[in-house]
Predict the structure.
Amino acid sequence: MTDQDDSTRGIARPKARGPRMLIALIVFQILCSAFFVVDIIEDFAAGDAVFSHMLPELGATLGLFVGLVFEVRALLHLLRRQAVMEKSLGVAAGALGALMEDYFRQWGLTPSEADVAAFTIKGFTIAEIAAMRGSAEGTVKTHLNAIYRKAGVQGRGQLVSVLIEDLLNAPLVPAGGPVDAGTATKV
Amino acid sequence: MSVKLRVWDPLVRVFHWALVAAFAANVFVTAPGKAAHQWVGYAVAGLIALRLVWGFVGTRHARFADFMPGPDAVLGQMTDMATGRRRVHAGHSPLGAIMIFNLLLTMAGLAVSGYAMTTLMFFGVEWVEEVHEALVVWAEISVVVHVLAVVVESRRLGVNLPKSMVTGYKTLP
C-alpha cells in the first residue's frame, strides 16, 4: 500500500536490510521467550519447580524480554527514520534528517507529531499530510499546534528556520568559540 | 464523513466464529480422547478445508491472493505503526494475514495429529501426542496474540475490527 516508488525517480536507494535483520532477530527472540515461558509454566504445573533450577530460567527469560523491548524500540526508531528518508531528496537529506530527529527528540515530540513535523518541514500542506497519514485535517492541525508549542516557535516558517540556522551556522563559524570540538578546524 | 465498506462475506464470518467455538470447545469443554473431542476435531478439519477452497474461489477479500503478505507490505504496516500513520486496509492487513496463515496451518496440524492418534498406525505413539500438545500450546499463544493485536489495531486505526467480523462491514473514519 505504499505510494512512493523511488526507482521511478532515479534515486538509487540501497535496499533496506537493517529492519529486516532486526525483525528476524525479534521473531527469533519471541519464539525463544515463548519456549521459556511455556517451560516455566509446565514446571510449575507439574509441581517440580525447584528454586535453584527456576532462578536461572527466570533470569534468562527476563533478559530475553528486556532485550526484546530494546529491539522493538530500535526497530520503531529505524522505521521512523526510514519513513522520513524515503520522502527526502538530495545529498543533504541524511544530515538534515539526523538534525531534524535530534530536534524532535529534544522537543519530546510523539511519533505522530514527529511524522507531521517532518512532512511540514518538507513543505507539504495540512491537507496533503492528512491524506498521507489517513487522518482528519483537524488532527494534523492539533499535532502542528503541539509541535509549535514544544519547539517554541510561532509557525511553519520559524520551524524551518530553526533547522536552516543550524545548517548555516555549523560550517561557517567554527572559530567563533569552542562550542563544538568536533567541528573545530585547524587554519 | 465515514465510509462503510463491505469486506467479509458470510462464509468468512461463519468460518471464523465456528472455528472459535470449535477450538474453545476442545480446549475447555470436551475431554481429550473422547468421542465429542474427535467430532469437534473433524469439524475443524472440515472448516479448514472449506476455507482453503474459499481462499481460491471466494469473494474478493476472502481470497488468499488478496492478502498474501509480502515483506514490503509488512514493513509498510510497521512503518505506519512507528510513525502513527493511519492507513486502513480494506481486507486483511499484512501482519494480520501472517497470523491467519499461522492459525490455519496450526489448526490443520492439530486436526491431522489428532486424527493420527485415532488410527491403528499411530495409536499410543508418543511423538504424535507430543506434537498435538505442542500445537495446542502454540495455538493458544497465537490466539492470545491475535486478540491483543486486533484490540491494538482497532484502537490505532479507529476501526472496530471485531465488529466487522460480525457484521461484514468496516466503517472507515
Summary: Helices of chain B lie at 10-29, 35-57, 64-67, 71-83, 94-116, 126-157, 161-167.
